[in-house]
Amino acid sequence: MGEPAKLCVSNQKGGVGKTTVAINVAGALAARGRDVLFVDLDPQGNATENLGMMDAYDEEPPTLFDCLTDPEQRGAITDIVREHEEMDVVPSNIDMTAAEPELTLARRSGEQLDLLLDEIEDDYDYVLVDCPPNLGNLMDNALYATQNVLIPALAESTSKRAFELLFDHVEAIELDYDIEVHERGVVVNRIDVRKNQAQEMVEWINAAFDDVPVWEVRERAAIQKALAEGVSVIEYDPECDMNEVFLDIAANLDDQFGLGDAETEEVTA
Ligand SMILES: Nc1ncnc2c1ncn2[C@@H]1O[C@H](COP(=O)(O)OP(=O)(O)O)[C@@H](O)[C@H]1O
Ligand SMILES: [Mg+2]
């Protein structure tokens, strides 16, 4: 296999659904037969917990922290990757809380995740990175390593400011590293259709992102229960009406990254 498609799930605002969207998009890609590597880059380790790997969070070194901050320990990443029923996972660890300051001192501070992924990425169709809720070194590493971003946001007016901050930051990274970061889509999450403001925000986001796909995920108990069970909602509840949204995102990503069904492509070419 060649280079995998790489994508980070980012929004510096906490609680908007980065981890939820990342896990469920990964699950949807897996359901389409894609080999996915999921990287939990958030020192809080929510994804690690939501994928049922809390023991990895408390594991002794070497952990993701060592592989990310010490070039001599980069190779240890192969022992850190865990198997989940839907995907492979690079779990976060309690030590990752020290990664921000440590990376500030590092040479090529924004490139360490990219160099780390070089060690393991060849086995996968996709690498999905779940970002922490701030615009720090870890986020920069995720943006540089993937150069593709999927943005979850709540259907609230506070999201407008969050988009502004995120795009300012993405622009700064593009200039700093002379790269282009592609926005692959916005996922409006936890929509409560009983709230008027939600529909207004969905319309605002659709107008603001006219050349980027916008998906709508509603508030669902099954989505929360799936996370508590350590799997995607597609795996947990095949009947959940939001599964088709995550599967649609996965199909669209396959298209955007040119990983669509080869036969179909030939027919339409
Ligand atoms: N569509 C949804 N329906 C129900 N609960 C959701 C949904 N999306 C997220 N949640 C819940 O909201 C909380 C925050 O989501 P999370 O994905 O952890 O956000 P972030 O990673 O951006 O901080 C979690 O408890 C999660 O279970
Ligand atoms: Mg999170």
UniProtKB/TrEMBL annotation:
In Pfam terms, one family for this protein is AAA_31
Using the record's annotation, list all stretches that form the AAA domain. 7-175
Q: Which InterPro entries match?
A: AAA_dom, DNA_Partitioning_ATPase, P-loop_NTPase
Q: Which residues form the signal peptide?
A: none
What domain of life does the UniProt record list for this protein's source? Answer: Archaea
Identification of the protein by name: ParA family protein
Q: Which organism is it from?
A: Halospeciosus flavus
Source organism phylogeny = Archaea, Methanobacteriati, Methanobacteriota, Stenosarchaea group, Halobacteria
